């Protein structure tokens, strides 16, 4: 069975598939920088204020 690799780019909304730092799996954020296999994710509150920027490997993200 073939595995399909997701293509993620800046401005995609993603969810963490595993916890990263203090952020649990399922946390949503937006890709703000693309470093190939590592993405910089902005996690914000409901009003749009940035709570944290975290680096996440592609393998721990899924597109929403």
Can you give a write-up of this model?
By secondary structure, this protein is mainly beta. The protein is built from no helices and five strands. Strands 4-3-2-1-5 form a five-stranded antiparallel sheet, with no helix packed on it.
Summarize the structure.
The protein has about 60 residues and is an all-beta fold. The chain has strands spanning about 15, 30-35, 40-45, 50-55, 60-64.
As a percent range, the share of helical residues equals under 10%
Class inferred from helices and paired strands: mainly beta
Taking strands numbered 1, 2, ... along the chain, how are they ordered across the largest sheet? 4-3-2-1-5
What's the end-to-end separation, in Å? 24 Å
The top level CATH class name: Mainly Beta
- Count up the helices: 0
What's the CATH architecture name?
Roll
Number of domains: 1
- Beta-strand percent range: over 45%
For the biggest sheet, the summary is: 5 strands, antiparallel
Chain oligomer state: single chain
What gross morphology would you assign? globular
Q: Which spans of ≥5 residues are poorly predicted at pLDDT below 50?
A: none
Round the mean pLDDT to the nearest integer and report it.
Answer: 91
Task: Kindly identify the CATH topology.
Answer: SH3 type barrels
**What is the number of beta strands?**
5
Roughly how many Å is the radius of gyration? 11 Å
Order of helices and strands: EEEEE
What is the fold's blueprint, element by element?
Elements: E1 13-16, E2 28-35, E3 38-44, E4 50-57, E5 61-63
Antiparallel strand pairs: 1-2, 1-5, 2-3, 3-4
